[in-house]
Amino acid sequence: MARQVIYTFKGKTKTIAFSYDKHHDLYEAAAEAEGIDLSRFLAMEQQIAMTSKKGAKAEKDFRKTEFARFGFSSIKFVREEDESK
Questions:
Q1: What is the pTM of this model?
Q2: 73: which residues sit within 8 A by CB, 6+ positions away?
Q3: Disulfide-capable partner of 7 in 22, 30, 57, 62 (CB 3.0 to 4.6 Å)?
Q4: What does the alpha-carbon distance between residue 84 and residue 80 come to, in Å, rounded to a whole number?
Q5: How confident is the model over 6-60, as pLDDT tens digits?
Q6: Which residues contact 5 (CB under 8 A, 6 or more apart)?
């Protein structure tokens, strides 16, 4: 069964297909679907990863904050039991 990502962008909820062959994670897939260029974001995220402790929540907080600034309020995988309803 194909994976799907459900996300809310500027108040509109959308569902897209997801494949690890195309995207590193579900955030990148959602950003691509909305036409958002993540090149500067990814560079900054990499810098944060290099300067913070391994496993620190700095990266996660940065990603969450920046995606909220882009207009995303929710990004998650569709669970199988959600699909059957």
A1: 0.82
A2: 8, 9, 11
A3: 30
A4: 7
A5: 999 999 999 999 999 999 999 999 999 999 999 999 999 999 989 988 767 888 8
A6: 15, 16, 17, 18, 26, 29, 30, 75, 76, 77, 78
